[in-house]
Design goal:
This protein has about 180 residues and is α+β, with helices and mostly antiparallel strands. It is built from eight helices and four strands; from the N terminus they run H-H-H-H-H-H-E-H-E-E-E-H. It has a four-stranded mixed beta sheet. The radius of gyration is 22 Å and the shape is elongated.
Length: about 180
């Protein structure tokens, strides 16, 4: 992650928190980044050195008329500092800070076969109980793990898959030989 993106995200986060607009500015950032990501013409306009900062700021003001003034000022700063290309990284950093502030954690349960939703929910509840955080739960199927489950809790991975156990067994047999 870019150091500049982290610094800009922290600045936006602190202003949003101070003004009591954490959720609304976060939503504006997500909408802006999604619009930018989905529109090649917007990317060319904001990322190209062929357009002046004044033209870009003017375009921002017209496109975001009525938007939160702090958010518009933030985007103007990105334009003036030629950092608009950091918008996607800033979004990711901001979302991570928002999750930490709101005590939320991403959990992905991966299994070889589709699990009963009640089982997945039970896993989520147990992680919530142990961490004291609200779990944002996702479930996916990966036949390559053969059996068992792999839990990704935030940045930590707990691998209780058969594939992992077989790989450990293979390594210990190879060392013994």
């Amino acid at each position: 992650m870019s150091e500049a993106a982290r610094v800009y995200a922290e600045a936006l986060f602190e202003v949003a928190k101070e003004k009591g607009k954490l959720d609304s500015i976060g939503d504006d950032l997500v909408q802006f980044a999604d619009a930018l990501s989905g529109n090649r013409e917007l990317q060319v306009f904001f990322f190209s050195p062929h357009f002046s900062s004044a033209e870009k700021v003017d375009g921002l003001k017209r496109a975001l008329a009525g938007a939160d003034p702090e958010f518009v000022n933030f985007l103007e700063l990105l334009v003036e500092k030629h950092r608009m290309t950091e918008a996607f990284r800033i979004r990711r950093e901001f979302e991570e800070m928002w999750k930490k502030e709101n005590k939320r954690i991403d959990v992905t349960v991966t299994s070889a076969v589709e699990l009963d939703p009640a089982v997945v929910a039970k896993v989520g509840e147990e992680i919530e109980r142990q961490t004291g955080q609200t779990v944002e739960l996702a479930s996916r199927v990966d036949g390559e793990i053969l059996g068992g489950i792999v839990l990704q809790v935030g940045n930590m991975v707990l691998d209780a898959s058969i594939r992992s156990r077989l790989e450990k067994l293979r390594k210990s047999v190879a060392q013994a030989a």
